[in-house]
Design brief:
single chain, about 300 residues, alpha/beta, six-stranded mixed beta sheet, 6 strands, about 35% helix, globular
Length: about 300
């Protein structure tokens, strides 16, 4: 794939700002990812990158929230493309990587897909192109989409936060690693991606800090467990030590992020008992109420 100088689109809303962020990084990312896909010695291939898209659909529309919350997981393993690709040579089993991009319009289509013609009329289903943000939209906002145990626990937490604070919560889900493992089966679909994928992400798609600057959440909760602390510090440029909130919950730590009112790192919710998850959730919610002076 050749190098492309992405032309920024007019920024009418937050989604446009996100598109410009991703479009500015995607061509360089794809150049390096093509090398990984063509290297048969590298058995684990990268999943599609996780690109955020806000919507007023779903239970917790972000922009209208009284309390805007960004919740981080760790990685989006096996983040598959479900869309229409007429050319099999540009379709991968584990993610959308169109290595035939030629210009800015191609990059924009890769991000947003193509669902309407030049006059704004909806395209027939067999002519639509599925973009990276469509994967995110389907997972987050499609009520028929199946959810992982992590997402179910995240939604459970947000419902409790909304109920106990009396505030309308706006939610956006994110991941520390924007590119996970792109394979199925034991050893391929779980855990952090290999170093060669992490290196490419770090050098070409380091966007997490800018996403936070664009979306300006009031609260950030890292449901990432203890193994990701150094990643949090690296990606957000944090030099301060994390601080304990409750000595009886040593895996719940508060951290300071520039421009963010409240941030904590807590346990990864998967494979935790309801009792353990509730202890951590209740402590976080009570601390949020104290911080924002909510009775």
């Amino acid at each position: 794939m050749k190098k492309i100088d992405f032309k920024l689109i007019p920024e009418i809303d937050l989604n446009d700002r996100l598109v410009n962020l991703y479009g500015s990084h995607l061509p360089a990312l794809y150049v390096e990812m093509e090398k990984i896909y063509s290297n048969n010695k590298l058995s684990i291939k990268p999943a599609a990158p996780l690109l955020l898209e806000l919507s007023d659909e779903g239970e917790f529309p972000y922009e209208s929230g009284e309390l805007k919350v960004m919740i981080f997981g760790r990685e989006n393993n096996n983040w598959n493309d479900k869309g229409n690709r007429k050319d099999p040579s540009i379709y991968t089993d584990y993610g959308t990587y169109n290595f035939h991009l030629e210009n800015s319009d191609d990059v924009l289509t890769e991000i947003r897909g193509k669902h309407a013609d030049e006059n704004g009329n909806p395209l027939p289903l067999d002519q639509e192109i599925y973009g990276l943000t469509d994967i995110y939209w389907d997972y987050c906002y499609n009520p028929k989409a199946s959810k992982t145990p992590f997402t179910k626990r995240m939604i459970q937490f947000v419902k409790e936060l909304e109920d106990k604070t009396g505030k309308k919560i706006g939610l956006v889900w994110n991941n520390l690693y924007k590119i996970g493992r792109g394979g199925e089966g034991t050893g391929n679909c779980c855990g952090f991606s290999p170093q060669y994928i992490q290196t490419v992400e770090r050098e070409t798609f380091d966007v997490v800090k800018k996403e936070i600057e664009i979306l300006r959440p009031d609260v950030i909760i890292f449901m990432t467990g203890t193994k990701a602390d150094n990643v949090i510090k690296e990606k957000l440029g944090i030099t301060d030590e994390f601080k304990t909130i409750d000595p009886e919950l040593p895996n719940l730590l508060k951290l300071r992020i520039q421009g963010v009112e409240y941030a904590v790192r807590t346990i990864h919710p998967s494979r935790k008992s309801n009792e353990e998850f509730s202890r951590y959730s209740n402590t976080i919610i009570n601390d949020i109420k104290r911080h924002f002076k909510i009775k």
